[in-house]
């Protein structure tokens, strides 16, 4: 009887060990094996840090970037202050290795040589694609949540996003295409928003038509003033701050609104524009839902009077 009890106890201990172990396949088919939840996590981009602060406690970050603490470009400044070690936004392989992380999460836009060098050190490296639509963002949330051992929390974050998206859909879902306002977004480099970019999906889901996509803008191109006039947007979207290019965003707005060649454009003529945080224009985290809701509310305030 005692032997039986002892074997039973050993069986339960073994079961517990196996329950702690798990594996995750990243966006590129790399299989990552875990014996336990990672406790020293390093995120290679701000959008991943934005996601992680809602998934894990601050003490599970091996470091946080300076960008995360910059209120001009970060949506997580307050949460980021709880992480003890701060590092520059982009650090090299040796600096990452010195942090002794047990999980490194990077985005594919970090060059392949850099990612390969990280893997060569023996670090556990998870590589995610750069999201260009909501489905990709939510898939990334779920896979990163699984990697850090917080799968249920990841599902809850997606569920919370979907509640906000459902509210937007209830307000603008029945708007016929021809009644949806045309919006044109500007950065310091000019009008942007190709149909293959994340902003396009944010724009469309908020109930707007993306003027840059309607004008046929391709990634990496600039939209001519002639195209802007012919597209005739109802609303212009300007950044509150520019994280990607230094310059005066207020001057940008003034220059566009006072441009003689654009005075026939409805948005310019009516001085109808929206100013939003830079991170909301290409939010690749759970904050994408916030961006969609914010943009929709500002574009159609009359639909949200009682909310």
Structural overview:
The protein contains 13 helices and 12 strands. It is of the alpha/beta class and 307 residues long. The chain folds into 2 domains: 18-161, Nitrogenase molybdenum iron protein domain (Rossmann fold, 3-Layer(aba) Sandwich), CATH 3.40.50; 176-302, Nitrogenase molybdenum iron protein domain (Rossmann fold, 3-Layer(aba) Sandwich). The strands form 4 sheets. Strands 8, 9, 10, 11 and 12 form a 5-stranded mixed beta sheet that branches. A hairpin with a 2-residue loop joins strand 8 (182-187) and strand 9. Helix 6 (134-147) packs antiparallel against helix 7 (151-172) and helix 7 (151-172) packs parallel to helix 13. Mean pLDDT is 90; it is low at 1-18.
Give a brief outline of the structure:
This protein is of the alpha/beta class and 307 residues long. It is built from 13 helices and 12 strands.
Determine the number of helices (DSSP H or I, runs of at least 4 residues).
Answer: 13
Name the CATH superfamily classification of the largest domain: Nitrogenase molybdenum iron protein domain
**Mind telling me the CATH class of the largest domain?**
Alpha Beta
What structural class do the secondary elements suggest?
Answer: alpha/beta
Give the CATH topology of the largest domain. Answer: Rossmann fold
Main β-sheet description? 5 strands, mixed
Order of helices and strands: HEEEHEHEHEHEHHEEHEHHEHHEH
Oligomer: single chain
Mean pLDDT: 90
- Low-confidence sequence ranges: 1-18
């Amino acid at each position: 009887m005692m032997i039986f009890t002892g074997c039973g106890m050993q069986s339960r201990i073994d079961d517990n060990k196996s329950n702690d172990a798990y594996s995750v396949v990243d966006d590129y088919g790399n299989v990552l094996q875990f014996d336990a939840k990672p406790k020293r996590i390093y995120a290679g981009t701000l959008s991943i840090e934005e996601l992680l602060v809602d998934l894990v406690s601050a003490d599970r970050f091996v470091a946080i970037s300076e960008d995360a603490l910059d209120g001009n470009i970060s949506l997580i400044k307050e949460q980021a202050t709880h992480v003890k070690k701060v590092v520059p936004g982009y650090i090299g392989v040796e600096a990452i290795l010195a942090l002794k992380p047990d999980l490194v999460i990077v985005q594919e836009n970090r060059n392949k040589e850099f990612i390969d060098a990280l893997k060569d050190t023996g670090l556990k490296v998870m590589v995610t694609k750069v999201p260009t639509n909501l489905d990709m963002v939510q898939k990334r949330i779920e896979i990163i949540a699984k990697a850090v051992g917080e799968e249920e929390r990841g599902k809850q974050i997606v569920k919370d996003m979907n509640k906000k998206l459902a509210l937007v859909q209830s307000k603008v879902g029945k708007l016929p295409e021809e009644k949806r306002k045309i919006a044109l977004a500007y950065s310091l480099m000019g009008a942007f928003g190709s149909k293959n970019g994340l902003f396009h999906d944010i724009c469309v889901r908020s109930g707007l038509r993306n003027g840059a996509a309607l004008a046929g803008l391709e990634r990496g191109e600039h939209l001519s003033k002639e195209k802007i006039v012919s597209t005739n947007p109802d609303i212009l979207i300007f950044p509150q701050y520019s994280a990607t290019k230094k310059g005066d965003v207020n001057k940008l707005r003034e220059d566009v609104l006072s441009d003689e060649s654009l005075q026939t454009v409805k948005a310019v003529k009516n001085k109808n524009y929206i100013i939003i945080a830079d991170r909301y224009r290409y939010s690749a985290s759970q904050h994408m839902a916030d961006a969609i809701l914010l943009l929709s509310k500002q574009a159609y305030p009359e639909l949200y009077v009682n909310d």
